[in-house]
Specification:
alpha+beta; 3-hydroxy-3-methylglutaryl-coenzyme A Reductase, Chain A, domain 2; Alpha-Beta Plaits; 4 domains; four-stranded antiparallel β-sheet; 10 strands; 49% helix; binds (R)-mevalonate; HMG_CoA_Rdtase_bac-typ; hydroxymethylglutaryl-CoA reductase (NADPH) activity; HMG_CoA_Rdtase_NAD(P)-bd_sf; NAD; hydroxymethylglutaryl-CoA reductase (NADH) activity
Length: 437
């Protein structure tokens, strides 16, 4: 591409595709076809998807799978998961089955408070900001009453505001820290609208206030926080050591000992903690995406929580006490089951229906369970057979696709490799052998 493209967003979808194919692929019709074969023939559905984003040229599919047999708080749940990585859904299902006979998963919602901040700069004396806040507080609260009304009817709304002096970390920095309960909505729009109104009122009241000696406070920005250490669900599994049985040839006692050491390592060693938590997010993100929630917000919030004491650590904890093995985690999950994509995307709606139309709190529980299950499954393999044995077997299908095996060859090669760890070179050799025969 030699020159910037002007007015790209105004082009029709077909024009955008043609521009792309001409500019980057020399008009290649195969590339054109790759793009258009993913268009949905149902124009209404296609229009819906095009409307979710901007400059769309096609659709990007993710597999949507099911992990059944989760016993969560004594109720059987089938978890919908949207994820592209092989083994993840199988691992979740395996963990579900393992804990099904051992009491299942237990969850507790610890709190559901979210927050947002109006970030302010003022270089005058601290006492002046305190006096201004006392002067403005009632009007600040009054000014958001109409925005708050419908959320209040649902039992939520703005909970509190306070002025926070942050001048110890940044000269002249204050914030209006607001806390919210948003019930079944993720609440981003509600929180941001409320914060922007608070900021407007703050500016107006600052004009009236006579006590500033150095200009007026300046609002820098108003935005919700995706850090939600007060919107947390606890999830756990627990059973007697002898109920663990023999796991991949390892005794229950040895398994529990190695498992808890593996978690301890991820608690103290960031190199391991990141991969450990990545495995947890395999499960969490899959549910978050399937249900139309914002996985970037969840990712950012969860990782910040994992580093809340200044070091990045494991999100899960494991222990053996009085011959009882317990594995648990607290996850900060600000999720919604109404509003946003949850009610727009037909597959998010379906995912929520599969979960029997959960409240946001129930979705927090299910998502947390999937995260803990995923970590259990990963450590279950890591401390016994190693990850590759199961992983590569699941990956075999993708590998066979990549080396260009046809359906008959796939069947034969799957059989030939059922007890082996497949490698690309081994598979290619076997495929060549097959073809020679
Ligand atoms: C792979 O997606 C996730 C794992 O690496 C997680 C872990 O190491 O705990 C298997």
């Amino acid at each position: 591409m030699d020159a910037p493209v002007i007015g790209f967003s105004k082009l029709s979808k077909t024009e955008k595709v043609n521009w792309l194919v001409d500019t980057y692929f020399d008009g290649n019709t195969v590339v054109h076809n790759t793009i258009t074969r993913y268009w949905n023939q149902d124009q209404k559905l296609q229009d819906l998807h095009d409307g979710f984003s901007e400059n769309t040229i096609t659709n990007y599919y993710f597999p949507f799978g099911l992990a059944p047999n989760f016993l969560i708080d004594d109720k059987l749940v089938t978890i919908p998961m949207a994820i592209e990585e092989s083994s993840v859904v199988a691992a979740a299902s395996k963990a579900a089955k393992f804990w099904l006979d051992r009491g299942g998963f237990k969850t507790t919602i610890k709190s559901t408070i979210k927050s947002g901040q109006v970030h302010i700069m003022y270089s005058g004396l601290h006492g002046e900001m305190d006096a201004f806040y006392a002067f403005a507080k009632a009007d600040l609260l009054q000014s958001i009453e109409s925005i708050n009304a419908s959320m209040k009817k649902r039992g939520g709304g703005l909970l509190d505001i306070k002025l926070v002096n942050k001048t110890d970390v940044l000269s002249g920095y204050y914030q209006l820290h607001a806390t919210f309960e948003t019930k079944d909505a993720m609440g981003a729009n509600f929180i941001n609208t409320t914060l922007e109104q608070l900021a407007n009122t703050l500016r107006e009241k600052a004009k009236e206030f006579q006590g500033f000696s150095l200009g007026k406070p300046e609002v820098i920005m108003s935005i919700l926080s995706n850090y939600v250490p007060e919107c947390v669900v606890n999830v756990s599994v627990s059973c007697k050591i002898d109920e663990l049985g023999t796991i991949n040839g390892v005794s229950g006692a040895d398994f529990a000992r190695k498992f808890t050491r593996a978690v301890d390592i991820a608690t103290v060693e960031p190199y391991r903690a990141v991969t450990h938590n990545k495995g947890i997010m395999n499960g969490i993100d899959a549910v978050v995406i399937a249900t139309g929630n914002d996985f970037r917000a969840i990712e950012a919030g969860v990782h910040a929580y994992a580093a809340r004491d200044g070091q990045y650590r494991s999100l899960t904890r494991a222990r053996v006490e009085n011959d009882v093995f317990t594995f648990e985690a607290d996850f900060p999950l600000a999720l919604g089951t109404v509003g946003g994509l949850t009610s727009l995307h037909p597959l998010s709606k379906l995912a929520l229906q599969i979960l029997e139309n959960p409240s946001a709190q129930d979705l927090m529980r299910v998502t947390a369970v999937c995260g803990l299950a995923q970590n259990f499954a990963a450590l279950h393999s890591l401390v016994t057979t190693g990850i590759q044995a199961g992983h590569m077997k699941m990956h075999l299908v993708n590998m066979l696709e990549q080396i260009g095996a046809n359906d008959d060859e796939k069947l034969l090669l799957k059989k030939a490799f059922q007890d082996k760890t497949p490698s690309f070179s081994g598979l290619r050799e076997s495929l060549a052998d097959l073809r020679r025969k």
